[in-house]
Design brief:
The complex is a heterodimer of chains A (235) and B (225). Chain A is mainly alpha-helical and 235 residues long. Chain A contains ten helices and no strands. Helix content of chain A is 77%, strand content 0%. The radius of gyration of chain B is 17 Å and the shape is globular. The relative contact order of chain B is 0.21. The chains are: A mainly alpha (235), B alpha/beta (225). Chain A binds chain B through residues 119, 121-122, 124-133, 135, 139-140, 143-144, 226-228, 230, 232-235, and chain B through 45, 47, 72-75, 78-80, 82, 84-90, 99-100, 102-104, 127-129, 133, 136, 143-144, 147, 160.
């Protein structure tokens, strides 16, 4: 039977893993979108395919691939363990990485749509006024794409919160380490008579997801008041 | 101020070869739609790269393909007022006008001077989508001026404006030319608009500058018909 402290620990761990995965993913997703949108290069389709792969792969497969790569005997994980004594698999860090990998393509999609909607002529106009490419990105592209970036963050966080297969395979189901709300619900349902505990976690999960969506919606409205839809400035 | 130019460009379907100078402040470029006027501005501004050729302005090589010289857009000191204004929709008029100031080391024009000249003081806290087309046009011109350019390009500034507004914009442009002494190139497909602004007018057709009997040019080196 889960006590209140364990429930609280599970909830806080889920939020921590979701936030960490989303925050680390955010700059990477923005960079990936810039790489996909602004440049043409050989193998671009391949890069796009690799980014989107977790969307179509069964999450358990994604977890297994992570294990092959970052496990103690994996290509990178083996080297990390032998060289530095770092073990990633079956830890909170592994749960964060699993969350990052499965939510990354969703964040990229959301941010990509937001940046694609910006009239490129606005960025050109900023260049003609003396702004460097970095300045244009920070002062024009980012603020105009902010609602979409925010959506990407919420979608990514929600996906991390609901992540199960990859986390189970790569990070395990360890209380206080990698047992997120989704894994805890599963664990409770395996034991007869613990349905009420599972239901409580489900309710908490719904509340967190709704809270995130409402926050996103409010922020979006505030941002849209500040900046209109792209294209409204053209006559 | 005398502006010298030496342009020899070749794109796939577009050639340019003009040399000369004008010192009347404003050069008009007239031609039908599709003549290559905007392409010319984009080449000058650096938004397009030619396949071959040379763009030199005031003895400064901006583009020289054979030597691999290409000055980036943001370092050309050429401001372009686009046909559709392109004000930044997330910034108010004040922020739009102040945008280029962060990139100008020694401004040639003060913010207040531009605001007064273009009568923008009452619009400063408005958002671009809340003001009229003419006010947007004035803001776009003001913003371009505040980048302290060596040359100001205006792409069809009279497009889609009524007669009253046209007169006002003409007046503003004349003031800019006489008071601020900023050399300007203005594109229009309406000859009368340009004639009201300057006597130096180039005629452009199918990517080439032409001499016509109807207009006398003070600029030598244009392509003869």
């Amino acid at each position: 039977m889960l006590n209140n402290q364990e429930i609280l620990q599970t909830v806080l761990l889920s939020i921590k893993i979701g936030l960490l995965a989303t925050l680390v993913n955010l700059p990477l997703a923005i960079l990936a979108v810039q790489g996909l949108l602004r440049r043409d290069y050989l193998g671009k389709s391949l890069v796009e395919g690799v980014i989107n792969l977790p969307l179509v792969l069964p999450p358990v497969t994604t977890g297994y691939l992570l294990l092959l790569l970052l496990g103690k005997k994996g290509f990178i994980g083996g080297w990390l363990f032998e060289r530095w004594g770092i073990s990633i698999a079956f830890s909170t860090m592994a749960a964060v990485i699993a969350g990052m990998v499965v939510s990354f393509p969703l964040m990229v999609r959301s941010i990509r749509v937001a940046i694609e909607m910006i009239d490129p002529a606005l960025e050109k106009a900023a260049l003609t006024l003396g702004a460097s490419k970095v300045s244009v990105f920070l002062r024009i592209t980012m603020p105009l794409a902010l609602p979409g970036i925010l959506s990407g963050v919420i979608v990514g966080f929600a996906r991390c919160l609901g992540e199960f297969g990859a986390t189970m395979t790569f990070a395990g189901n360890l209380q206080g380490e990698s047992r997120t709300i989704a894994l805890s619900v599963y664990s409770q349902l395996q034991i007869p008579g613990r349905e009420s505990q599972a239901a409580l976690l489900v309710i908490i999960s719904i509340v967190i997801s709704f809270g995130a969506m409402i926050t996103s919606s409010l922020l979006n409205k505030a941002l849209q008041k500040r900046s209109p839809k792209n294209g409204e400035n053209t006559i | 101020m005398k502006i010298q130019y030496d342009l020899q460009l070749k794109l796939r379907d577009f050639t340019l070869d003009i040399q000369g100078a004008w010192d009347t402040g404003t050069l008009g470029i007239y031609g039908p739609s599709g003549a290559g006027k905007s392409t010319f501005f984009n080449l000058l501004q650096g938004l397009l790269k030619p396949d071959q050729g040379l763009i030199r302005l005031n003895n400064r090589e901006l583009t020289r393909v054979d030597r691999g010289i290409y000055i980036p857009v943001q370092h050309r000191k050429i401001a372009l007022v686009f046909q559709n204004k392109l004000l930044f929709p997330h910034m108010n008029i004040r922020e739009n006008l102040q945008f280029p100031l962060a990139y100008v080391k020694s401004p040639r024009i003060e913010f207040n001077e531009v605001v007064d000249l273009l009568e923008l003081s009452e619009l400063l806290d408005s958002m671009p989508q809340d003001i009229s087309g003419g006010e947007q046009q004035r803001t776009a011109i003001g913003r371009a001026l505040l980048s302290s350019p060596e040359l100001l390009l205006l792409d069809e500034p009279f497009n889609g404006v009524d007669i009253t507004l046209r007169e006002k914009i003409l007046q503003y442009l004349k003031t800019l030319s006489t008071e601020l002494k900023i050399p300007m190139m203005v594109i229009s497909h309406e000859l009368s608009d340009l004639e009201a602004l300057t006597k130096d007018i180039l005629y452009m057709k199918r990517g080439k500058f032409l001499k016509t009997k109807a207009h006398r040019f003070s600029i030598p080196g244009c392509y003869p018909i």
